[in-house]
From TrEMBL:
It is an enzyme of class 2 (transferase). GO terms for biological process: methylation. Keywords: Methyltransferase, Transferase. Its EC number is 2.1.1.-. This is SAM-dependent methyltransferase.
Amino acid sequence: MEQASWVPASVDLDRPSTARMYDYYLGGSHNFAVDREAAKAVEHVFPGMSGAARSLRTFLRRSVRYLLDQGIDQFLDLGSGIPTVGNVHEIAQAANPAARVVYVDIEPVAVAHSTAILSANPLATAIQADLRDPASVLENEDVRRLLDFDRPIGVLMVAVLHFVPDSDDPHGAIARYRDALVPGSFLAISHATVEGVQVDAEQDTARVQDVYKRTESPLIFRDRAEVAKLFDGFEVVEPGVVPLSEWRRDSDDAYTSAYVGVGRKV
Ligand SMILES: C[S@@+](CC[C@H](N)C(=O)[O-])C[C@H]1O[C@@H](n2cnc3c(N)ncnc32)[C@H](O)[C@@H]1O
């Protein structure tokens, strides 16, 4: 098994991670043989996976630009992943050089790589934490140092909540983040779905879920009503919780196997 210099000691090289599989789908180089094997098993069932990952990234870009247009200049990116092109701090600081970003991920490679590329950026950082434990995020000293909770913040949960089953109480966690935010703050969510897939695709869906069972983050799908429920306490902005391609579309991207939305705390 390869062991590059950027590999943190805490990484389990025998178990695939969703962060590194996602990096593989996006054409990145921060993944290991075990991740590539799992990612290829997903692609075998669902050859569109790389395209899906790229489509999900378009929502990240579109939602960050939307929040910037609403005057948001601080971002808390929960489940931020391994940096790739078009990271939140790049989009935000291109529009507003004073924008502040804290990346949060549970996976050590994602955090190590993020920290490395942000070393010369005093207004952005990355921390390792579990979003299911809001206190560990909200009380983190870097989070408190960089983000001003007396002003609106954009919280991003992009392509991550489908790794948080109801048994882990995503609603309770989101409520904790919501309660820490002032009105005028926002929450952006994208979430994988199989609502509307053909019956003969159900077996393929189960096979994809079987691959993710090898990771620490089993993949779960939610329908539109379930994704809308994640916005409890937020006012969902137009066009509502919709398939990814219908949300303030700025390209010919037609991917629909994810529901997305942005909510405003009122
Ligand atoms: C599919 S990637 C999405 C990355 C990024 N948000 C994007 O849109 O490109 C999901 C990320 O969520 C992270 N993740 C999964 N469960 C998490 C948790 N409980 N707390 C923090 N991060 C988590 C994974 O490590 C992975 O980096």
